[in-house]
Amino acid sequence: MIIDSIQNGIVIDHITAGKAMELYRILGLDKLDCTVAILKNVASSKLGRKDIIKIDREMDLDWDLIGYVDPTITVNCIRNGQLVEKRTLKLPERITGVLTCKNPRCITSVEQELPQEFVLTDPARRVYRCRYCETQSK
Ligand code: ZN
């Protein structure tokens, strides 16, 4: 498989092997009309194996969302064939609209228009709790 090097676009690198498809779905990359390349199980000196996603276009990404899926990721922004920005990610303090509260008595289960908001309560174990009832996300 040959992947052209990108002139203008984004390379999402150091994705934990096996997580590229989850990221692809959660970021809605299937809705893009430009070229998106997913490389799986690439040899990496840092991670052993990693996944990479290349997007052949500049676009805004939800950094919190990427950091939530996988905080080891680095994102490279490329313009005119040059690396113009390299971003490392971390777990976001709070995340909205991704996790849903499983507590049937939670106010977000009753009032569907409320945003599902979760707060990071234990960074080491990646624990998020519902902002309203403190139920753990998983
Ligand atoms: Zn809740």
List keywords for this structure.
138 residues; mainly beta; Alpha-Beta Plaits; 3-stranded antiparallel β-sheet; 3 helices; 8 strands; 13% helix; elongated; binds zinc ion
Question: How would you describe the overall organization of this protein?
Answer:
With 138 residues, the chain is mainly beta. It folds into 2 domains: 9-88, Alpha-Beta Plaits (2-Layer Sandwich), CATH 3.30.70; 94-130, no CATH class. Helix content is 13%, strand content 37%. The chain is built from 3 helices and 8 strands; from the N terminus they run βαββαβββαββ. The protein has helices at residues 20-26, 63-69, 107-110; strands at 9-16, 36-44, 48-55, 74-79, 82-88, 94-96, 117-122, 127-130. The strands form 2 sheets. A 5-stranded antiparallel beta sheet has the order 2-3-1-4-5, with helices on one face. A 3-stranded antiparallel beta sheet has the order 6-7-8, with helices on one face. A hairpin with a 3-residue loop joins strand 2 (36-44) and strand 3 (48-55). The longest helix is centred in the N-terminal third of the chain and has 7 residues, at 20-26. It is elongated and about 50 Å long. It binds zinc ion. Zinc ion (ZN) binds next to loops.
Q: Can I get a quick summary?
A:
With 138 residues, the protein is mainly beta. The chain has helices at residues 20-26, 63-69, 107-110, and strands spanning 9-16, 36-44, 48-55, 74-79, 82-88, 94-96, 117-122, 127-130. It has 3 helices and 8 strands, in the order βαββαβββαββ.
